[in-house]
């Protein structure tokens, strides 16, 4: 490489670990990527996806210019078309006839402007995000238990825990740097224990002392049994529970039927001895962190699963202190930032509640807006149902590919075909979703855009521009703001830079400190452009007048929660099986997830040759006993089918898969491998509280192709 002329510190755009990236840009434009040695999320380490980021910076496949009906147009023409069609639709059919569907890939500034536009000015809460598919159950569980969507702990807790319980998380592949952090802690302190709770054996089991391969959907029974065990063996922290919690009696009553190990074994399919080992370790280990991810969240009982886990930490008082606590790790790079600005259809900015009149008044007052949405909008799955049946007539999709990623993906495709007006903002020209757009808006990609993201430990970090935007690509917040201006709200959408949006977001979070609860970064409301440019990673909150270089590492150490009575709530949880049930026709559970070296629908990671060397094609992992019974040879083609769709993929026959279940990755689409859109096989079943789809428990038939 030629001499470095610029070093830019930025953030990886993939998983919610939020690793700091050091990009060295040479005079000839070549970019060299390494980990930022000073970033507290990764201290210089990057996984293979992050390390390959430079390979994704080219313009191959990029959407370079705005288009209407497939023809290149100017930005002015495209923005005029979006604004006039949205205005006409709202005028004729009302605010709820339009919607935005955004993404955990966009920056906090993009999310902020999208929410302000929809909730404060259009007057509809029909804005939801693909983060609904990722962590909505954790949001709902946090709010039930803590009174707010607060992640209590931080990554340092993984370093100092004596027991790490991983549940529903193949951390080794999906959050590799967090996995390496736990592995390093375990290497340094061999007495540290790791339990991995997952229906299948994964790479994460390389560091596990105990694998619990439970029946799909039986997590609530396992953690209810743990609650009963902890209570029955004297592990309740009586002082903490008495002073700082509510709901104990109801939670224990609900768990009572799992006080017996055999009952837990029947419900989970686990050996009583393994359950006893897990319960024994948990009971005996003060410093315990329970890490959970999509295997918990992506369920029709996801919120109850989260609360069943949190209950055990509240009962033992193991929360808010070093090395302990429940810990949701988010799948996407900015799922947390989206939550902070109210990126879900049932939220307001600054973790405020849409259904609270005082919260609505606060936000409307701050925005000086003509209206404020008063009822929750459609959550992701419902939103596309509303498109399908014509209630939503104009939809703007931003940085996501729902034709592949949503459940019932063929119906999503049909819904978009029938929608009178579809706008798609993306960095990529040809996806299964852009193919259905009336208007295409070119967005700045990673390396081009500028703003902030928040990782799983509440750490806000800058994404910074390294290279010039491709073609006429523009920031998503800019496109949204210009549509807002065209709709007549000139001063409310007048920002000219990301720093200005960030300042407004920060100011809103401290507008009424007596009402705002956990999320408050008003200490940055007066940040200069220069200070925004050099902003170092920090954990929120950072309230006005707080000079600390970093926010508190943990919440709830003082036992004060954000519920009306200030107490953390234990929740009575009752096991609910997945909505689908295996049958003679559809005898297999279908589990879905990520592979190590790809991201979502591969629009970026698919550009990096290094990343396709790990797994080059879609596959179905199936137990060797099932393969033998069905006459499926290793590496032969198999059909995975149910009444919704069929995919044809190669069989990966292993002894890691639980008999009666099959695992297929989510990444491959019609654009990169025909017949591998696994979202088409997933039913649109959702958790009643969180609206998160059940993406890990469909039922299918498996047969040789
Ligand atoms: Fe990026 Fe996640 Fe890998 Fe870190 S662990 S480099 S954030 S993909």
Automatic annotation (TrEMBL):
Keywords assigned: 4Fe-4S, Iron, Iron-sulfur, Metal-binding, Molybdenum, Nitrate assimilation, Oxidoreductase
GO molecular function list: 4 iron, 4 sulfur cluster binding; metal ion binding; molybdopterin cofactor binding; oxidoreductase activity
Gene Ontology CC terms, in alphabetical order: membrane; oxidoreductase complex
Keyword RNA-binding: no
Top-rank taxon: Bacteria
Example GO biological process: cellular respiration
Domain 4Fe-4S Mo/W bis-MGD-type: 5-61
Cofactor: [4Fe-4S] cluster; Mo-bis(molybdopterin guanine dinucleotide)
Family: Belongs to the prokaryotic molybdopterin-containing oxidoreductase family. NasA/NapA/NarB subfamily.
Name of the protein this chain belongs to: Nitrate reductase
Species assigned in the record: Siculibacillus lacustris
Residues of the full protein shown: 1 to 705 of 893
């Amino acid at each position: 490489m030629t001499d470095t002329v610029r070093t830019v510190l930025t953030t990886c755009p993939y998983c919610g670990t939020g690793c700091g990236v050091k990009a060295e840009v040479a005079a000839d434009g070549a970019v060299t990527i390494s980990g930022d040695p000073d970033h507290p999320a990764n201290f210089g380490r990057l996984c293979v996806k992050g390390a390959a980021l430079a390979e994704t910076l080219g313009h191959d496949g990029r959407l370079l210019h705005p288009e209407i009906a497939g023809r290149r147009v100017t930005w002015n023409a495209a923005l005029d078309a979006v604004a006039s069609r949205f205005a006409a639709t709202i005028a004729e059919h009302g605010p709820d006839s339009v919607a935005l569907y955004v993404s955990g890939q966009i920056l906090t500034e993009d999310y902020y402007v999208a929410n302000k536009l929809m909730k404060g000015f259009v007057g509809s809460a029909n804005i939801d995000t693909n983060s609904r598919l990722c962590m909505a159950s954790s949001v709902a569980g946090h709010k039930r238990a803590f009174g707010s969507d607060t992640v209590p702990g931080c990554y340092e807790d993984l370093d100092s825990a004596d027991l790490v319980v991983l549940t529903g998380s193949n951390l080794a592949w999906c959050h590799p740097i967090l996995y390496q952090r736990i592995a390093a802690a375990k290497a340094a302190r061999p007495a540290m224990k790791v339990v991995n709770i997952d229906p299948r054996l994964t790479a994460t089991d390389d560091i596990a002392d105990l694998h619990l391969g439970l029946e799909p959907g039986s997590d609530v029974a396992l953690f209810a049994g743990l609650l009963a065990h902890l209570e029955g063996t004297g592990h309740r922290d009586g002082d903490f529970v008495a002073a700082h919690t509510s709901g104990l009696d109801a939670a224990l009553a609900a768990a009572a039927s799992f006080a017996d190990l055999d009952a837990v074994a029947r419900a989970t399919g686990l050996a009583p001895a393994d359950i006893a080992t897990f319960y024994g370790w948990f009971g005996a280990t003060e410093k315990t962190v329970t890490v959970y991810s999509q295997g918990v969240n992506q369920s029709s009982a996801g919120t109850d699963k989260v609360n069943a886990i949190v209950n055990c930490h509240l009962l033992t008082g193991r929360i808010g202190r070093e090395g302990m606590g429940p810990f949701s790790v988010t799948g996407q790079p900015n799922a947390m930032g989206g939550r902070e600005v109210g990126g879900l259809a049932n939220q307001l900015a600054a973790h405020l509640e849409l259904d609270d009149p005082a919260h609505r008044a606060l936000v409307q007052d701050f925005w000086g807006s003509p209206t404020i949405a008063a009822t929750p909008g459609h959550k992701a799955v419902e939103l596309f149902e509303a498109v399908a049946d014509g209630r939503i007539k104009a939809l703007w999709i931003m940085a996501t590919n729902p034709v592949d990623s949503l459940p019932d993906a063929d119906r999503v495709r049909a819904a978009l075909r029938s929608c009178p007006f579809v706008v798609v903002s993306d960095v990529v020209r040809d996806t299964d979703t852009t193919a259905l757009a009336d208007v295409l808006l070119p967005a700045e990609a990673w390396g081009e855009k500028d703003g902030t993201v928040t990782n799983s430990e509440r750490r806000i970090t800058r994404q910074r521009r390294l290279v010039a935007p491709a073609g006429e690509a523009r920031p998503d917040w800019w496109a949204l703001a210009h549509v807002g201006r065209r709709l007549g709200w000139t001063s409310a959408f007048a920002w000219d830079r990301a720093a200005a949006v960030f300042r407004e977001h920060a100011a809103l979070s401290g507008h009424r400190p007596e009402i705002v609860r956990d999320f408050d970064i008003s200490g940055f409301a007066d940040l200069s452009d220069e200070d925004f440019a050099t902003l170092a990673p920090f954990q929120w909150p950072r309230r006005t007048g707080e000079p600390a270089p970093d926010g508190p590492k943990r919440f709830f150490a003082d036992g004060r929660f954000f519920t009306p009575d200030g107490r953390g709530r234990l929740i009575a949880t009752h096991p609910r099986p997945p909505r689908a049930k295996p049958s003679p026709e559809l005898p297999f559970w279908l589990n879905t997830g990520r592979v190590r070296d790809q991201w979502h629908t591969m629009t970026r990671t698919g550009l990096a040759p290094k990343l396709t060397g790990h797994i080059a094609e879609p596959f179905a992992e199936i137990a060797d006993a099932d393969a033998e019974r069905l006459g499926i040879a290793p590496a032969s083609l198999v059909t995975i089918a149910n009444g919704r769709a069929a995919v044809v993929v190669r069989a990966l026959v292993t002894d890691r898969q639980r008999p009666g279940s099959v695992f297929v990755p989510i990444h491959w689409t019609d654009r990169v491998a025909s017949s591998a859109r696994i979202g088409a096989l997933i039913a649109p079943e959702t958790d009643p509280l969180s609206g998160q789809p059940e993406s890990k428990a469909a039922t299918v038939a498996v047969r040789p192709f």
